[in-house]
Amino acid sequence: MLSHRIATEEDLPALNALMTRAIEHLQGGFLTPEQVRASHKVMGLDTQLVTDRTYFLVEEDGRLAGCGGWSFRATLYGGDDSVVAREPARLDPATDAAKVRAMYTDPAFVRRGIGRLVLNLCEQAARDAGFCRVELMGTMAGVPLYRAAGYVGVEEVLSAPIDGVRVPLLRMGKPL
User: Fold this and answer.
1) What spatial distance separates the first Cα and last Cα of the chain, rounded to whole Å?
2) What is the DSSP letter of 97?
3) What tens digit of pLDDT does each residue of 98-117 get?
4) Which of 111, 110, 123, 112 is nearest to 149 (CA)?
5) Are 121 and 85 within 8 A, CB to CB?
């Protein structure tokens, strides 16, 4: 049975290991091997989400199955070790969209509703915080899930070059 909770600092090593597995094993059908390697410098965990207590993890029988969060800050994507610039400014729920961030499923748990569960948790938390819209930066592997959950593409983006390689992304949004 799946359970969920807010991530804590003690969860960081397990979360980072899950993210590495997910990037390595789930992006391959959508990106070249070079783009998968570069993805490690575009994606990852922004520990600000854990500090803000807006990052969820999903477990099955004590085993980490997936994770993801939302943010009331301006940063749209990128982790602590990524080349993506981050902006910690607080958003205004009356005018800004909350950000869904760092969604990952362990490869051993794909196609079991974990991504949808995390999205629902994030959307409800953002709604409870007064936000009327959410947006995210989708990886190519994540876009099918986000589309199925009602997100629409807003802007195609290529990452900054990483060792000469750019990673394709899709900025997406949804009203709550």
Assistant:
1) 28
2) -
3) 999 999 999 999 999 999 99
4) 123
5) no
Q: What is the pLDDT of residues 17-57, one digit of tens each?
A: 999 999 999 999 999 999 999 999 999 999 999 999 999 99
Alpha helix (H) ranges present in 27-112?
Answer: 33-39, 47-51
Quick one: three-class SS letters along 110-136? Answer: CCCCHHHHHHHHHHHHHHHCCCCEEEE
Residue 154 to residue 117: CA distance in whole angstroms = 23
Q: For the domain that residue 140 is a member of, what is the CATH number?
A: 3.40.630.30
Residue keyed to tokens 């802007």 = 155
Residues of the domain holding 44: 2-175
Neighbour-count burial of 34, counting CB atoms closer than 10 A to its CB (0-12 exposed, 13-18 middle, 19+ buried): middle
Query: Is residue 81's pLDDT more than 90?
Result: no
Please state, in angstroms and as integers, the Cα–Cα distance from residue 56 to each residue in 32, 117, 125, 142, following that order: 29, 10, 10, 17
How wide is the angle at C-alpha 39 spanned by C-alphas 36 and 42, nearest 5°?
170
Residue type, 73: R
The number of folded domains in the chain is 1
| HSE, side-chain direction, 13 A CA sphere, residue 116 | 10
